[in-house]
Structure formats: C-alpha cells, structure tokens
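Last lecture ended with a question: if I hand you only a sequence, what can you say about the shape of the protein? Today we answer it with a concrete record. The protein is Cytochrome P450. Below, first the input exactly as provided, then the predicted structure, then a couple of comments.
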Amino acid sequence: MSTTTALTLADLDLFAHGAPWGVFDELRATPGLHWSTEESPNHGFWSVMRYHDIVRVLRDPDTFTSTKFTNLEEVDPGMQDQRRSLLETDGLRHRALRRMLQGQFTPQAVAKYETFLRGITAKTLDAALAKKEFDFVDEVSADFPIRVLARLLGVPDSDTGQLIDWGNRMVGNTDPEHADLLIDSAESEEYKHVPFRSPAAIEVYEYGKHLAAERRGKGGTDLVTLLADGEPSDGQKLTEHEFNTNFLLLVVAGNETTRHTITHTMKNLMANPEQLDILRNDPSLIPWAVEEFLRYASPVYHFRRTATKDVEFSGTQIAEGDKVVVWFASGNRDDAVFDEPYRFDVTRNPNEHMSFGRGGPHMCLGNALARIELRIMFEDLLTRDVTLAPAGDVDFLRSNFVHGIKRMPVRVV
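The predicted structure:
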C-alpha cells in the first residue's frame, strides 16, 4: 500500500514558512509510504514518516544504502566518487573513516573545551545584549558555533565570516537569497562534480587544500591535520577527493545544525515563557532540557537512502534503486512515541528524539559537541537577568533539507 496523493514533499513552497507539520501529520496517519514526484532529471522518492519505520531504515544499511548519496539530488554515477564523503560511505570504509575522526568528538574529548566554550559564549552574549535590539541569528546563533568550529579546524576567528558565508551558499542552494546558483538551474550543471552543485564548494576545497599543505607532517592535533595525515584503520589514506569532501562536510556540519537549533530554541522559549521559567528557577534541568531543544527544533528535515534490492516495507513495494527518504522532523512529532508531541516540554522524559538520527552506523558524529554547545549557551543566557522578546517576523530558509532560520529579530525587555 502507498499514498498516491498529488502532494509532493519536493515542493519547496510547502517549507516557505518552516516545517509543514500538518502535512507530516497527515502522511504519518496514512498507511504505507508516500510517493513524491520530482521534476526531471530526478525520479521521485518514497517518504518514511513514522518513527519506528525510520529507525528500521537507519539500522539496515544493507537494504537501504547511503552510497548512492543522502540528499534528494541524484548524483551522476561518474561524479559519485568525486563527491563522496563519510556521509555517502557504508561498510568497512565508513567505519575506518569514522574511527579516524570520532576520537575528537567523544563526550570526554569535547568536555575539555568547556572553559573555552564558556568564554566565547559570554563574549557573544555580552556583545549582542548590549545592542538592546538585534538579529538573534547574526549576533548569537551564527556567531557562537562557528567560533567553536574555527577552534577545531585551527583557523583564526577572522575566517569565521567566510566559513558562515560558504555554509549559507551551499546549504541554501534552494533559496534564491543564499544560492549562487539554484540547484535545479541549468547553470548548476557546470558544478555537478562538487557537493550542493555550488561554486562555494570549490572555494572551500581550495581553502582546505591550503590548510593541509601548511600542516601536513607537522604533528598537529586539529581536524585538518587529522584528515591530511590520518591513517584510517583499513590502511587506505584519504585520496585528494576524500580530503576535499570530508573537509567540506566538517565546515557545513560543524556549524549549520547547531546554529539553527539555537535559534529555534530561543524562538520556542519566547513562545513558551512557562518553560523558560522552569529552567530559570532550576538551571540544573538545562542539560536534560537540551534533548527537548533538539527534538522540537529538528534542524535537519530528512536524509535519503537508496534501496539495494526489491523489498516490501511498511506495506509498500519498493524497487531496487528507489530513493527512500527518512523524515526525522516527522518522527520527532510521532504521537506513537511522544505524548503530546506538539507540546514544548523541557522536562520531557523519556525523550528518544531522532535529531541526530536514531541508531545505525550514520548516527551524527558531532552529537556530543552539539549538546555541550547548546547546554553552555542556554546555561549562560537563561541565568542572566535579561529577557528577550520577538521584534519582527521570523524568516525561514527555503529548504526541505535544513529546517533553517535566516533572521529572527529580538529585543531586550
């Protein structure tokens, strides 16, 4: 059984004002999977909307592979190896690349940054709050995680503006405000060999190559040196393409999702002042509240897999080669798992959200870093004698991939 409505989740207009929660609810309540049509050259995709179905897909990479790419774009076979990163790798190679990096992202490893994080959090908030009225994205949520990323990469703070710009231009490849070239434009064909079909990707590659040339063989501990000199456990050093794509992955993943979660969380706290009061009255609850921040924000709408064989799944017949898209945002509102899923509840327990995925080999590598960033940001902000209120409309990213906020004006009251 499958859903055959004319509705398609490839329609970016559905996401113009943020997540289309009502559509997600409708599709979750409909038996089977939903088929979304796409314009040529893409071929459409199956959407997996229910929490437990999403988990089944994520934990079965033999049937639902990442190697055919994880975004909706169908990458030309001849370009796949040039564009392949950790995200688009399965099996032994994936495990080898992940092990090479994961030591930098364990809870123990990121805990050593706490003093540094508290310092830059205080600096960021001091500067923003002094302005009395400001854009929360520019002054707080974009500024903070990018400075953490700069530290991990070993690059100067003066480069953070450029890193933000590159991320905006790549992740915003469906938003006319951010994209150099919209991904569905004829002009983007010239850039089909790089991620996001974006000229910004080439600039990131050149930046990364320059850093690697400076650091190779010098025994550094930053992520660039790790990629340049690291020896994966399968004995195969990174190729030039692998260095480029995995460096680019760090630039994007190390900034975008935490940035949007911080923004959504401030928006949700302003809209739910009783929840803000709970945390102000008992700041010890903030570390656990971070899980609700993540669930409610759902900063990444989906990731894609590809069926490796004909298979029946959730009452739907899927053909080998079909795209199968798991919608994390929908799973995070599934009332089969979360009581009153549209209630923002900072004391919610249990809270097995899927904003980092939910098990399987591709569970978000940076989840511990994101958690400590969120915790420290709101421990500082919510213990200050200051209250923020909306000062204008929220402007969402035109994207069905990242649940992003471009602007959120606030004022100090």
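Comments.
1. The longest helix spans residues 199-215.
2. The two ends are 53 Å apart (CA to CA).
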